[in-house]
Amino acid sequence: MTSSPKTLRIAMNGVTGRMGYRQHLLRSILPLRDGGLTLVDGTRVAVEPILVGRNADKIADMAAQHGIQEWTTDVASVIADPTVDVYFDAQVTSRRVEALSSAIKAGKHVYTEKPTAETLTEAIELARMAQNAGVVAGVVHDKLYLPGLVKLRRLVDEGFFGRILSMRGEFGYWVFEGDGQPAQRPSWNYRAEDGGGITVDMFCHWNYVMEGLLGSVKAVTARAVTHVPTRWDEAGQSYPATADDAAYGIFEIEGGIIAQINSSWAVRVYRDELVEFQIDGTHGSAVAGLRRCVAQQRAHTPKPVWNPDLPVTEKFRDQWLEVPANADLDNGFKLQWEEFLRDVLAGRPHRFGLLSAARGVQLAELGLTSSAQGRRLEVPEIVL
Ligand SMILES: NC(=O)c1ccc[n+]([C@@H]2O[C@H](COP(=O)([O-])OP(=O)(O)OC[C@H]3O[C@@H](n4cnc5c(N)ncnc54)[C@H](O)[C@@H]3O)[C@@H](O)[C@H]2O)c1
Question: Which SUPFAM superfamilies does the record associate with it (predicted)?
Answer without folding.
Answer: Glyceraldehyde-3-phosphate dehydrogenase-like, C-terminal domain, NAD(P)-binding Rossmann-fold domains
